[in-house]
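Saturday, quiet lab. Running sequence design on the C-alpha cells for the scaffold JK sent over.
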C-alpha cells in the first residue's frame, strides 16, 4: 500500500480545489450573464442566459409602452402609437450581440468576462422600422398641400424673350424621416420630430431653356386692321393669343391650324366676312387669315422654309400681292419648317389697330428683302339686272367689282450688303369680283 507524502496530498488537494473553482466558473459563465453588463442603463448581472430574451422584452415594453410618435409640420400635428406604425426596438440585435460573447471557445469567453468586469459593457435600444407599414400608417401627411415645382418659362418683356427661373417643389422626405427616427435615442420621452422635406427640381430649368438658343430677334412683321369691326377684331385676338408663346424646335414643322385650333363659337369665335371663291360671306372665325398672313411674312423675313401656303381667292387689304397666306380649318393650312439650329419663339401681339408677329431665336446675319410684282390685271366681270322701272339703256351700279391680278413674290437675300440669293417664292392669281349693274328696259 502506497502512502502519499504530505507534498503529494497537498498537490491533490490543490488540484481538487482548482478544479472545483474552475467548474464553478464554467457553470457560472455558461449559465449567467457577465457582471457589469448593462442594457439601457439597467444591469443584467446575475440574470440567466435563458432569461435574456424575456428580460429584454420587459425592458423594451417599459420603454415603448404608451409611447407616441409626434410628427409636426408647421401648424399640422399628427400623433401615432409607436407600436401601431411599424416601429419596434432592436432587441433581437442586442440579444445576438450579448450572446456573441459566448460564440468563441470557452477560454475566450472567460477572457471576455474578465474584460467586462473591469470595463463595463453598455447596450442601448435603437428603433427599427417596418417601412411598408410605416408609410401606410402616416398617410395623413399626404393630405397636406405642398407646393408643386414650377417650370422655368420664357416671357416676352419689352421686346425681348427672357427666361423666368423655375421654382422648386416641396415633398415630405419620408426616407429621411425614417433615418431621424432610427438615430433617435430610446428613452422615456415621446418621439417628436419636425417632418423633413426635400426639394423637387422642376422638369424644365432655366439652364435647359438657355440651351435652346432663343436670344435674338430674327424677324418681325406687322399689319393693320379696322378695330371698329368688333367681331373680326375679336377673332384676331383669339387667334393671336393661341399663336403667342409657341416654340418651334429645330427641324420641326409648324402648323397654323394645329396651333390655333378649330374656329368655333364654343371657343369664342364670331361670324365675320370670309372669302368663298369670288364671293364674300360671313363665316365663324372670319379674319384670322390676317394672323396667318402676318406670320407668313415674318417667316419669309427669317429665311425659313415654307412647307405649305396658299394665297386668297381675292386680294386682301392688309398685305401686298403674293404676301398673304389663307387658312381654313380642315382643308387649307399654313406650315413652315424651322431650318435653324436653335428653337424659335413666336410672339404675337395686338395693340389698337396693329397686329404684330415676332420670331425670336439665334441671331441671323443675313437680310431678306421681299418684292411684290404685279404681272397682269384682270378686269372685273359684269352682271346685269334688268329693271323695267328704269329708263331704257339707263344703268345704275349696285356693286362695284374689283379687278383681279396675277402676281409674284421675289425674295432677295443679302449678306454684308451683297446680294447672295434671289428666288421667286410664288406666282399667284387673284380673282376679280363682279360689278353688278341694274339696267333699264322701259
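Result came back. Writing it out in full:
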Amino acid at each position: 500500500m502506497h502512502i502519499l507524502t504530505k507534498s503529494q496530498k497537498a498537490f491533490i488537494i490543490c488540484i481538487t480545489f482548482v478544479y472545483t473553482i474552475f467548474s464553478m466558473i464554467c457553470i457560472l459563465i455558461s449559465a449567467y450573464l457577465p457582471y457589469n453588463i448593462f442594457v439601457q442603463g439597467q444591469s443584467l448581472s446575475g440574470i440567466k442566459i435563458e432569461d435574456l430574451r424575456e428580460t429584454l422584452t420587459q425592458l423594451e415594453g417599459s420603454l415603448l409602452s404608451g409611447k407616441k410618435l409626434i410628427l409636426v409640420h408647421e401648424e399640422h400635428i399628427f400623433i401615432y402609437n409607436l407600436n401601431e406604425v411599424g416601429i419596434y426596438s432592436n432587441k433581437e440585435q442586442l440579444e445576438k450581440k450579448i450572446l456573441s460573447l459566448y460564440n468563441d471557445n470557452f477560454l475566450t469567453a472567460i477572457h471576455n468576462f474578465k474584460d467586462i468586469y473591469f470595463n463595463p459593457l453598455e447596450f442601448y435600444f435603437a428603433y427599427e422600422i417596418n417601412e411598408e407599414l410605416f408609410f401606410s400608417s402616416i398617410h395623413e401627411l399626404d393630405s397636406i398641400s405642398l407646393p408643386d415645382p414650377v417650370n422655368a418659362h420664357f416671357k416676352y418683356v419689352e421686346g425681348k424673350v427672357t427666361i423666368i427661373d423655375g421654382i422648386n417643389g416641396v415633398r415630405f422626405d419620408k426616407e429621411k424621416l425614417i433615418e431621424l427616427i432610427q438615430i433617435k435615442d430610446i428613452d422615456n420621452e415621446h418621439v417628436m420630430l419636425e417632418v423633413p422635406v426635400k426639394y423637387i427640381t422642376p422638369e424644365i430649368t432655366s439652364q435647359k431653356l438657355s440651351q435652346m438658343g432663343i436670344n435674338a430677334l430674327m424677324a418681325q412683321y406687322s399689319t393693320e386692321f379696322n378695330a371698329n369691326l368688333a367681331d373680326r377684331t375679336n377673332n384676331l385676338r383669339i387667334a393671336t393669343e393661341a399663336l403667342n408663346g409657341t416654340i418651334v424646335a429645330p427641324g420641326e414643322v409648324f402648323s397654323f391650324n394645329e396651333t390655333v385650333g378649330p374656329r368655333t363659337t364654343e371657343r369664342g369665335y364670331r361670324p365675320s366676312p370670309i372669302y368663298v371663291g369670288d364671293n364674300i360671306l360671313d363665316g365663324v372665325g372670319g379674319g384670322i387669315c390676317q394672323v396667318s398672313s402676318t406670320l407668313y411674312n415674318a417667316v419669309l423675313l427669317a429665311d425659313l422654309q415654307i412647307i405649305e401656303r396658299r394665297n386668297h381667292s381675292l386680294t386682301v387689304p392688309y398685305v401686298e400681292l403674293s404676301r398673304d397666306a389663307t387658312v381654313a380649318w380642315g382643308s387649307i393650312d399654313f406650315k413652315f419648317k424651322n431650318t435653324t439650329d436653335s428653337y424659335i419663339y413666336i410672339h404675337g401681339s395686338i395693340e389698337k389697330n396693329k397686329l404684330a408677329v415676332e420670331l425670336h431665336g439665334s441671331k441671323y446675319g443675313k437680310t431678306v428683302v421681299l418684292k411684290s410684282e404685279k404681272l397682269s390685271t384682270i378686269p372685273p366681270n359684269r352682271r346685269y339686272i334688268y329693271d323695267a322701272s328704269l329708263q331704257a339703256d339707263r344703268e345704275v351700279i349696285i356693286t362695284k367689282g374689283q379687278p383681279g391680278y396675277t402676281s409674284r413674290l421675289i425674295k432677295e437675300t443679302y449678306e454684308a450688303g451683297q446680294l447672295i440669293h434671289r428666288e421667286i417664292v410664288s406666282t399667284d392669281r387673284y380673282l376679280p369680283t363682279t360689278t353688278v349693274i341694274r339696267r333699264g328696259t322701259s
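Notes for JK: The CA atoms of residues 177 and 196 lie 6 Å apart. The mean pLDDT is 88. Ask whether to fix the surface positions before the next round.
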